[in-house]
Design a protein that fits this description.
The chain is mainly beta. It has 1 helix and 10 strands; from the N terminus they run ββββαββββββ. The protein has one domain: Ubiquitin-like (UB roll).
């Protein structure tokens, strides 16, 4: 779900559609939008699981101050998705605990 006509911000600008890959599933996003926004628009709400109790976390502050939205992006763990812009072909994974660096 996306807000296409906001009562204060106005109409959403046209942006280039790109493909991203989230947990090996292809999703559509808009180039330059924040990763967290693209994931929420595609129905994904759980971005990571806590280390100790494996509890789900998603967007909390949405301004890059907390770490609830961190995910593994292009093999790098602990990326704050609420302040990371989408790029064509990004590979994003749900993070478990502190995450692991992926070798490329």
């Amino acid at each position: 779900m996306r807000i296409k006509n906001h009562p204060i911000l106005g109409k959403m600008e046209e942006k280039k559609k790109v493909k991203i890959y989230v947990d090996d599933k292809e999703m559509e996003a808009y180039e330059g939008e924040m990763v967290a926004s693209a994931l929420l628009a595609n129905g994904k709400k759980v971005f990571r699981l806590t280390k100790k109790e494996k509890r789900p976390r998603g967007v909390f502050c949405a301004i890059g101050r907390c770490t609830d939205c961190v995910m593994i992006v292009n093999g790098i763990p602990n990326i704050r998705t609420c302040i990371t812009p989408v790029q064509e072909g990004m590979e994003i994974e749900t993070q478990k605990g502190f995450g692991e660096w992926k070798k490329k």
